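G., before I forget:
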Amino acid sequence: MEYEEPKFFHVMQYAAAADGDVIDMVSGNPDWEPPAALREALREYADLPSEAFQYPPSEGLLELREAIAERRSVDPDRVVVTNGTGEANYLAMARAFERDAGAEALLTDPVYPYYPGKVDMLGGDPTLVPTERDGSLDVGAIREAASEDTALVVLNTPNNPTGAVYDLDAVREVVAVAEAVDALVVVDEVYDHFDLTGEFESALTLDSDRVIVTSGFSKSMAITGFRVGYGVFPEDHVDSAKTRHMLVNVAGARPSQYAVHHALAETPPEYYAEARDLLADRADAFTDALDAAGAEYTRPEGAFYVLARFDDFPGTMANVKRLVDEAGVAGMPGEAFGTARDEWIRFALVTPRTEAAAERLADYFGD
Amino acid sequence: MEYEEPKFFHVMQYAAAADGDVIDMVSGNPDWEPPAALREALREYADLPSEAFQYPPSEGLLELREAIAERRSVDPDRVVVTNGTGEANYLAMARAFERDAGAEALLTDPVYPYYPGKVDMLGGDPTLVPTERDGSLDVGAIREAASEDTALVVLNTPNNPTGAVYDLDAVREVVAVAEAVDALVVVDEVYDHFDLTGEFESALTLDSDRVIVTSGFSKSMAITGFRVGYGVFPEDHVDSAKTRHMLVNVAGARPSQYAVHHALAETPPEYYAEARDLLADRADAFTDALDAAGAEYTRPEGAFYVLARFDDFPGTMANVKRLVDEAGVAGMPGEAFGTARDEWIRFALVTPRTEAAAERLADYFGD
């Protein structure tokens, strides 16, 4: 296995062991409350008869699949509930490779490090294709990279780590490229509730038999530990995905699925809007401070992250540690996200101390 | 993917749609209460701060891994908490194949159908090796079947579907065979709390660097839907297993792990003994009725199942359906478990109506 474990843990351990006070902007764990209905559903579940503690259907509780299908405007038969978005991505990528349609996966660079890790594990060859400097899709570069050996293209929008929200027309063009070389396109939309532009459109609206959309409730309900995600598969691929899911995991965790189903039904839109507004405010405060620090950055259009570049301070692990020790702020080195952002550092906005962290960075770099 | 979906669902659907009253002896879902401490822990969990709802460590909550390690007398670093025993078996089998030590898996016949399914999915070649007629290990047959191409041997004790509890000396001999051909041995001990002989010994006592032991809490705590299992890997293999687990599932479900950890710490031995005694009583009642029905069977030494053979009534899907319609009892066709028990039908003892089912079978076959 050629996969290198994500550097997240290394940075978090270093920050935790540091002498001074350090603000953690490393992990993508939401720091706000989950929906009240989720807690209430867990309490209810604890008192259900013991039959409710046994295997859910392998592809997920029917009522949860139906609720997802309704929200996504797809047939419930196309929905597989998974152990988080991570498993959904694994199933989708595995499906792309098992078709004997090539071994190459095109991944956008900067890249979420689990993607090349999964590709390697599945015996595929990851090829990194740089995005534009603002994080938007470079369709021409993807077209140029695609070949008969391409089995898979992976997109993530809103994007981790760039914060870009992809234009649907650009996604449509990527799907056309994929079709021409018999590749599948996996679009990871786990941050779809955190679109700050108001213009995000799901790739499901393309209604393409080439597109697998993955998502989950880890971020939208602030429950990364519950492990409830899903994939929406084209009809031709859903049975294979269900079989692999069954053979790997048998089924997902029923207490988690039960709680998410109730939270999905009973949580008002205001809950999601509040979290989004909170993130938008933090993005404002943080990027203001980056201006004061003289940093280059892209204002995030969505997701939880800001990539920033400071002059003469490349995004190496060594510099990230220096920032922990000397500024009291922990970020993620850009070199962890492929090759395109070696100069950059990623900061996650999921801490109530975002503003304090911004001030520390402005003080540290602003002289 | 060559895997044929288990026939469980087909039989269960047929039984549910039948006109008359049918006693379900198909599934392996315990029908008794989970530990009281498990329900209490779930209630507690629902009120924890939101940090407790975020990712657990990928390899499982530390306190749970330590509790498992203590019970199993192994180093906690060797324990990976998984999404049920199913994922633990998947990780273990994948590890056996990724070593470039061959493509063949030796599976005992009759076989739990997920095992050949996983082997196929992983690109391996399953070879079925018959056990003795009483279900015990035929070490000579395994020795004869083993070759340089053998990468993996899978054992399950107490066994589903035969009910056999393997003699530790026989397991030791199988491990020696595996060592000679550079294979790993996966021993699935998920039914270890349901040893009716009092003589079961874990393969971990062999202290072999060839042996991966898998297990979980689905059966022992009557919570098949919680998805908490684990693998105990030899030092040389644990890092690869952790990496694959992370790349497939990121982590397991934290509410489930939290509840299991508390139940493990607070549940008295009497809880497990009561469930075991219940099963022993049911095995007595059921096999008495099989005597009255003139059936051949093996009295289960452990696990939840009885395999029975009725004269002129082979264990085909058609005959299983006939039994549903004409006797009001649903079992599993022996042909679902490999090739060695085509003549047999498996009955699961996890229904409070075991005795009634036994009487129905005695009436139906006893004339």
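The radius of gyration of chain B is 20 Å. DSSP finds twelve helices and 13 strands in chain B.

More on Monday.
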